[in-house]
Write a structure and sequence with these properties.
With 265 residues, the chain is α+β, with helices and mostly antiparallel strands. The protein has ten helices and nine strands. It has a five-stranded mixed beta sheet with strand order 7-6-5-8-9, sandwiched between helices. Helix 4 packs across helix 8 and helix 6 crosses helix 7.
Length: 265
């Protein structure tokens, strides 16, 4: 950024505090770059030209797939797993849009950003396991001596395979937010390693395709929880399982959670 500003002879303004690295206001370009790496900017065509010039492009693959899940840690609501597929140019567009780890975003911004991603026509696949379906599937896996990680590996692998099957590509990279490498590899099964590279990475939400998947997953989770609240006249986020009719509980909660299981007997 600094090199581009200097070579383009854009006028720099004095920084106003210790957290700013540089501040630019010139030729309809307004930028403030912070020491954290955060960039605040206006959305003029000239500013977008600057961003397109300085942001590095991913290379070597036609598509970058990112897979993530949400709802695993909440006793209520569904388990949602999403995988997205981005071209190098779409990665740049989403970074400019502000796509980042959904854990750093507030719910209204997540929902707004998820809508923007969908409007761009980004390919994605999802599985939304509502509590009733989730509980049934969890029992089936458990009866076979398998764990929650097996269920998650099945869900991630299923939608990754479905999305790869929809895409036309020579080379694709798949990034999975790592939870159980061995089980995920087993579930993915055989794929053409000459065309598909799979990476399982802890903290993968730093990668734009995974961040996009996490944002869509969170928006689907919020939608499903709102539907459950409306259907059963509840406020799941602000309630405990002990406050809910035991007859309703299996339809709104994950039955293996200790605070739910004790109530179901």
């Amino acid at each position: 950024m600094k090199e581009y500003i200097e070579s383009s002879h854009l006028e720099r303004k004095p920084v106003t505090n210790q957290y700013e690295i540089l501040r630019v206001k010139d030729q309809n370009v307004n930028l403030i770059l912070y020491s954290t790496g955060k960039l605040v900017f206006n959305e003029s065509s000239k500013t977008l030209d600057v961003l397109n010039s300085i942001l590095e492009r991913e290379e070597g693959f036609d598509y970058f797939l990112g897979s993530d899940e949400t709802g695993k840690g909440e006793w209520y609501g569904p388990l949602v797993v999403v995988v997205t597929a981005l071209t190098p140019e779409e990665i740049i567009k989403l970074r400019i849009l502000g796509v980042k780890d959904s854990k750093t975003m507030k719910t209204p911004k997540i929902i707004e950003t998820a809508l923007n991603i969908r409007e761009m026509g980004i390919p994605y696949e999802s599985i939304v396991l509502g509590p009733a379906s989730y509980n049934k599937l969890y029992r089936e896996f458990k009866s076979e001596g398998k764990s929650l990680n097996d269920l998650m590996a099945w869900a991630h692998s299923k939608i990754i395979q479905e999305l790869l099957g929809r895409l036309e590509f020579n080379q694709a990279q798949v990034i999975i937010d790592k939870f159980d490498q061995k089980k995920t590899e087993e579930r993915l099964g055989n794929y053409d390693e000459s065309r598909v590279k799979v990476i399982q990475k802890t903290g993968a939400e730093t990668e734009t395709p995974v961040a996009a998947a996490s944002i869509i997953a969170k928006s689907l989770f919020e939608k499903a929880v709102n539907e459950l609240n409306e259907k059963y006249d509840l406020d799941l986020k602000n309630s405990g399982p002990e406050e809910i009719n035991p007859e309703i509980l299996p339809y709104v909660a994950k039955a293996h959670f200790k605070n739910v299981k004790s109530l179901l007997g």
